[in-house]
Amino acid sequence: MIARRDVPARLVERRELSPTCFSLLLATMERLPAEPGQFGMLSCGQGLDPLLRRPFSVAGVRPLGSGWGVELLVKEVGRGTAWLRRAPLGTILELLAPLGHGFNLEAAASTRAALVAGGIGLPPVLFAAERLAETGAPFDLFLGAATGDELLEIKRCRAAAGAVGGKLVLCTDDGSVGEPGFVTTALARRFAAGQRWERVLACGPDPMLQALARWSVTEGVVAELSLEEPMACGVGVCLGCVVELADGRRVASCKEGPVFEAARLAARWRP
Q1: Are residues 83 and 202 in the same domain?
Q2: How many angstroms separate the CA atoms of 191 and 193, rounded?
Q3: Which of 35, 132, 141, 185 lies at a C-alpha separation of 20 to 30 Å from 238?
Q4: Range of the structural domain that residue 170 is part of
């Protein structure tokens, strides 16, 4: 049975998070059974302009009044996301969700995990962190961005990690906040010093995910990577998000992913 639904979603809240990023809270009358790592295809205009919906990872699902609230974190990068940043509250949007396969939280909860987010890759990682915190499962959270202004939801990240005795490590490329350099370097440095995680959950730009894939395979750590492939449909029809696997198969990220174990991915993910 297909769990996904195409539902009307009313825009009830928008918060500015950084010069480029913002959050949306959408109200629906039915609960979307989304798990961390799953995503939705959201309309970004009225009528057929723009024609295509945009994919967004779900950052959270919670009761809201007599219905449910779905949270998305968005970066303004083009016409569709610019429209979402300025759409009036109360606007009715169409949301097709939940889509794809998310993180294996049961496996992550059975050991100490490291959660790693880069920039706007935070939504599925934050969702996973808050879910793990609810169960008391221990984890450490690594949050990176190009600059301090682009570090998103620091208070929520700190609260989630702190609730289970975990650490929040902040990194910026320019060194303006936290540790200077890449978040993957901070993770690898701590691992080399003796800190251990058996599982990594991550989302971020391709170079970050490639570095994590290479490190995880070398160190024998299971890494689940939420890929950010371009998507036009979200249901495996357009084949715009095809990913090559280590066994030579090519699969639609929107259907078999977007979360993949690093060891399953083709060699290009471990340059």
Answers
A1: no
A2: 5
A3: 35
A4: 105-269
